[in-house]
Specification:
single chain; 216 residues; alpha+beta; Glutaredoxin; Glutathione S-transferase Yfyf (Class Pi), Chain A, domain 2; five-stranded mixed β-sheet; globular; binds glutathione
């Protein structure tokens, strides 16, 4: 049987969230670990925009947006209701994920890599990031997770970016009034989806089969 192929990069937050959803769905894929500095021709051929993650389904369809890969996997199997079907919160989750994408992620990049944005004010970007994290802290005060009493799509889709933000100045992050957010991050990082998603693979040499994902 041919497995869907996932082009991935371990440290990419977008690829992380796609891998977590694949773990949760119980699907198996052939993972091809990519070096962003040396992308394989096969990846460029199926997705000229050349970002990771990219999923090539067994029927040949290409999904080259991480959120769409999450939705693909969870629509096949969603054992813990990450899509919030019962709670009817998918649209609201997608809205929060979009605001992470459109507002928090650019602020994170300007805070984490100020040398890449010489015309931007790093402190301003950090403040914009903080405002998003304040919003998450308030949501977590409700029922413990972003959308209810269990972690769902939004938690997993946003977590890799919060993790990056937390890693820029870890001591400073610890001192902020984000107790719930820190617990949330710790729990997600200790969870099976993240731990299995972060398994290390050697880069795919460009031909032949990749590795089976998730790991046993
Ligand atoms: N919107 C895309 C963004 C993916 C993305 O930007 N991935 C980065 C790695 S974290 C990438 O592949 N960048 C291309 C490069 O660095 O050459 C998604 O959600 O999949």
């Amino acid at each position: 049987m041919t497995l869907p192929v996932l082009y991935s990069f371990r440290r990419c937050p977008y690829a992380m969230r796609a891998r977590m959803a694949i773990v949760e769905s119980g699907m198996r894929v052939e993972l091809r670990e990519v070096l962003l500095s040396d992308k394989p021709a096969a990846l460029l051929a199926c997705s000229p925009k050349a970002t990771v993650p990219v999923l090539v389904c067994d029927a040949g369809a290409v999904i080259d947006e991480s959120l769409d890969i999450m939705l693909w996997a969870l629509r096949l199997n969603d054992p813990s209701d990450w899509l919030g079907g019962a709670a009817g919160c998918l649209a609201a989750m997608l809205e929060l994920v979009e605001s992470c994408e459109a507002g928090f992620k650019p602020a994170l990049d300007r805070y984490k890599y100020p040398q890449r944005y010489p015309d931007c004010d790093r402190e301003l970007a950090k403040g914009q990031g903080n405002a998003f994290l304040d919003q998450l802290e308030r949501r977590l005060a409700g029922e413990g997770w972003l959308f209810g009493r269990t972690p769902r799509l939004a938690d997993f889709a946003i977590m890799p970016f919060v993790r990056q933000f937390a890693g820029v100045e870890p001591r400073w992050f610890e001192e902020q009034p984000w107790r719930r957010l820190r617990d949330w991050l710790c729990q997600l990082q200790a969870g099976a989806a993240f731990v299995r998603a972060m398994h290390k693979y050697r880069p795919w040499p460009g031909t032949g089969a990749g590795a089976i994902f998730p790991p046993p």
